Model the fold of this input.
Amino acid sequence: MPPLALTGERTLPDVPVENYWFRRHLVVYEWIAERCDALDIVDMACGEGYGTDVLARRAASVVGVDANPDAFEHARARYSDAGARFERALIDGFDEPCDAVVFLQTIEHVRDARATLCHLRSLLRPGGRAYVSTPNLVTLAPPGAEKSDNPWHVREYRAGEFRELCEACFDRVELYGLFHARKLALEQRAIALGWHRVHRALGMTKPFYDRFVPAISARDFTLRPLAPGDPRAERALDFVAVLA
Done:
């Protein structure tokens, strides 16, 4: 199955230059899958379908939902044999009850984010949970900007803003931050010490990153709980909310 076209709207597997973003999203799907063993799951705005496939390995059932016709047809053709089911629908038009709803890297695309989260809550059976992630405005956008230059994003959130949004629809909010680990943490420290100047001066930028980026794995990221006002939130790449 050939990959979908890269547009900047979604992350794709099997594209070496996209591997950093793919692994950054994949680790969250894997973390959620471990917490949703034997549950009925809805993967809302599932895109290419790789995350739905990860959830299907542990879930009792999983349905991936996406409104985009190309993404829907691709996901259905590539992943249905692995036990996932796919539906083409708008978020507010899908009403199948579930034990867990997963909504990753999409709330920043939504104009009425509060109404969307409240709709996700309405899908949950008693005791169910929603898992919602979004990029951190502070690490995504230039310093002082209220938004990055991503044309697909309507609004990007700081930790307190995202927590407040979630608390408007859910009684319990647990917030986690995604951070670099292992070799990405080492690279981050090296950059702080001037690594970018070194590799540019030596003319080795492209050869180095042509090897480095495809070698990134999900283990090069880690999730850590964030209390309200936690100063570490400023450094988080993404926020992941567990909502009940």
Summary: The chain has nine helices and eight strands. The domain at 16-179+221-243 is CATH 3.40.50.150 (Rossmann fold). Residues 19-34 form the longest helix (16 residues).
